[in-house]
Amino acid sequence: MTDLTPSELGNLTDKLTQRRGELVAMIRAGAADAGHDNLRRMSGEVGDPGDESSALQQTDLNLAEMEGEVRELRAVDRALERVRDGSYGYCAECGCNIPTARLAAYPTAERCTQCQTRHERVYGGRDVTPSI
Ligand SMILES: [Zn+2]
After folding, report:
1. d(CA 115, CA 1)
2. Which CATH superfamily hosts domain 6-123?
3. pTM
4. Domain ranges for the chain
5. What's the half-sphere exposure (Cβ side, CA atoms, 13 Å) at 112?
6. Average pLDDT over residues 39-53
């Protein structure tokens, strides 16, 4: 067992489930927007080149935003998967208990602070996850 009490684990699971719903809604809305922009561009509704490039820029921005949301959604799904298989709250690298305070701040945390720091030093960036 981890240091988490059943009610703490329940709270974190609720948080993750709620966040998942928010992310899915944001991604759906973003996808609808992007689709709409593409449609407008294809139908020639966007007239002069200035408008066109700002429309493109906006789409890029939306896509970058969506990419972040999709990445977070994957992290949330992995966390919920770990709740199901009972490995939630354990560091993926060293197997120690991830401190409850860290999980409360980052419910999707997969590593203890030490392993995360080392991981970031190797791979860079806070959101980077290994491809395998
Ligand atoms: Zn660790």
Report:
1. 20
2. DksA, coiled-coil domain (1.20.120.910)
3. 0.75
4. 6-123
5. 13
6. 67
Cα-to-centroid distance, 113 and ligand 1 (Å):
7
State the distance from the centre of ligand 1 to the C-alpha of 97, rounded, in angstroms.
Answer: 8
Tokens of 64: 């970058």
Spacing, Cα 117 to ligand 1 middle (Å): 10
Residue 127 has pLDDT above 60, yes or no: no
Residue count of the chain, please give it.
132
What Rg, from alpha-carbon coordinates, does the chain have? 19
Where does residue 21 fall: left (phi above 0), alpha (psi -120 to 50 degrees), or beta otherwise? alpha
pLDDT tier, 1 (very low <50, low <70, confident <90, very high otherwise): low
Q: Cα of 73 to ligand 1 centre, how many Å?
A: 23
